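User: Some background: our group keeps a shared notebook of sequences we're curious about, and every so often someone picks one and asks for a predicted structure to add to the entry. Today it's my turn. The entry only has the sequence so far, pasted here. Could you supply the structure so I can complete it?
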Amino acid sequence: MNQSINAKVIHASEICGKELSDFIQYVQKVDPDLKHSEAIMVGAIILHHLPSAFADNPQMLDELKKTCKTLKQRRK
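Assistant: Of course. Here's the predicted structure to add to the notebook entry:
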């Protein structure tokens, strides 16, 4: 992997980690009685179920496809 690609992967991973952390904080706001480890597990469970949620919701799937298309257009 060249340095440019590696830097892009690192940057994307950092953004993903920040978004996941923000979501875990949101879960804890929804249910303040959850321990942090439990909120993380809720996040993992939701991530596990996302593919079927997209498959069952055409509007969500369309938004996902639009986001993918936008990102692909930016790389040109």
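Suggested note for the entry: The mean pLDDT is 94. The helical segments are 3-30, 36-56, 58-74.
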